[in-house]
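Entry for pyridoxal-5'-phosphate complex. Fields follow.
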Amino acid sequence: MHLETLAIHAGQRPDPATGAVMAPIHLSTTFERNADGSYPAGFVYTRSENPNRAALETNLAVLEGGARAAAFSSGMAAISAILQALTPGDHIIFPDDAYFGAGRLLREVMTPWGLTFSVVNMTELDAVHAAVQPRTRLIWVETPSNPLLKITDIAAVAQIAHEAGARCAVDNTWPSPTGQQPLTLGADLVMHATTKYLGGHSDLLGGAVIARQDDEFFERIRVIQQIGGAVPSPFDCWLLLRSIRTLPYRMRAHSEHAQRVAEFLAAHPAVECVHYPGLPTHPGHALARRQMRQFGGMLSIQVRGGAEAAIRVAGRVNIFTQATSLGGVESLIEHRASVEGPHTTTPANLLRISVGLEHPDDLIADLAQALGD
Ligand SMILES: *Cc1c(COP(=O)(O)O)cnc(C)c1O
């Protein structure tokens, strides 16, 4: 079946107890035992498992073409679970352009815990090869990357990982499963900040890990979820499933609008360069065409005139909101370096743009007036 159908039906069916077409929210933290001590529906305690979370996890596993999924209370909790499933002393290969929080977690939390890591330009496969060490157990991929939208060859990196006896994990937050399905390209794990496109309305925080195989590594992630305890609430699981039903249609529009905005910006004299894989001039365009079904709703630009000019543009928009995050129906613009702080490698004149579902003509008009003098 197609993603449009699966988004609506996978893990979702009318409530057998009442016939309600939309599942109820099971707020109960605890579940009654039978007289013989068994649990009639298998649910014991909501931190371990909850009907709304189980439905969400089934849906996410199906959308990514995986065997199992584990839902978390944030994207960072999902990344933490993958890293904690490794063993102290293990080595990770990490991209030079990636979600800033993931790098910070590696440096400030997981390095003291005992992991080591090397940072490489993941678009250069030779560099990835050269970074492999005897204890390399994980190669982390984010494509398109944040905030420069570099495109990494998932199949090729997964192969390098497997030859090294390591796993390949892909942060698939930006493209979402409608844009690319890393597990079908050979990756072992997919991670999502469901806070972004899957949630889609900037009103819930969540994360997920989806595994290609139901193996002992996923079992460790499950234990970290249940015993570590960073689980999403039943309400957040319900709200997320509600949003996922429209994901394929939202992503289609996000991508279409981003393409139009990118083309407008690429032709604007105040813009030094546009990073968007849907532009034929983007160095990863050919690879993105092979690996992705849609180029997604995220892009970044570098503004002529440095940081000051960029900040001025971000301050002059009317329809866009100047705020961090992405993936909601509303368009956002952000001066990224000032959010990332002193460790940032983001160019000072870069603005990151999350293109929303407003009419693209209105978005282009707003950017035109903000860029004009
Ligand atoms: C937002 C984001 C995260 C972190 O997710 P949170 O829900 O904020 O913890 C990780 N990766 C990417 C690509 C993101 O955009």
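NOTE: The chain has a mean pLDDT of 97.
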